[in-house]
Structure formats: structure tokens, C-alpha cells
């Protein structure tokens, strides 16, 4: 069993909580870097959500275009 499989089994049943944590961490990183790496952060968040299984529907924040 790979390390990722062990982590995935530990998180089983807590996907929503993990997604919230990933989103919160990404938002905090975007705030610290003033959005400089927002594309990379969004990509990483998407890949993590894909690995967790079925993706949660986008929130109203995600469906709105970025504001300058």
C-alpha cells in the first residue's frame, strides 16, 4: 500500500472537511502572495479534489469572474 493510499483511507468519510481545509489554505496562500500564484493554487486545489473523488459543486465565489 502506497503512502497516498494510506492517507486516502484515513480521509475516507471526511472529504468535505478536507475540501474546506484545502480551499481555506489556498485562500490564505493567495492572500499572502497577493494572488500572484492564484492559477497554480487553483490547479493544485482542483487536483486534490479530483483525488478525493466526486467533486463538490462550485460555490458562488468560484462561479463569479475574478474582480480586480
TrEMBL record:
Coiled-coil positions: none
Name used for this protein in its record: Antitoxin
Organism: Kitasatospora kazusensis
A Pfam match: MT0933_antitox
Basic and acidic residues: bias regions: 1-34
The organism's place on the tree of life at top rank: Bacteria
Biased segments, Low complexity type: 54-68
Region (Disordered): 1-68
Biased composition (Polar residues): 35-53
Amino acid at each position: 500500500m502506497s503512502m497516498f493510499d494510506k492517507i486516502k483511507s484515513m480521509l475516507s468519510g471526511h472529504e468535505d472537511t478536507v475540501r474546506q481545509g484545502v480551499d481555506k489554505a489556498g485562500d490564505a496562500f493567495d492572500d499572502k502572495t497577493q494572488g500572484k500564484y492564484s492559477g497554480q493554487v487553483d490547479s493544485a486545489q482542483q487536483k486534490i479534489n479530483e483525488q478525493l473523488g466526486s467533486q463538490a459543486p462550485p460555490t458562488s465565489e468560484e462561479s463569479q469572474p475574478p474582480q480586480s
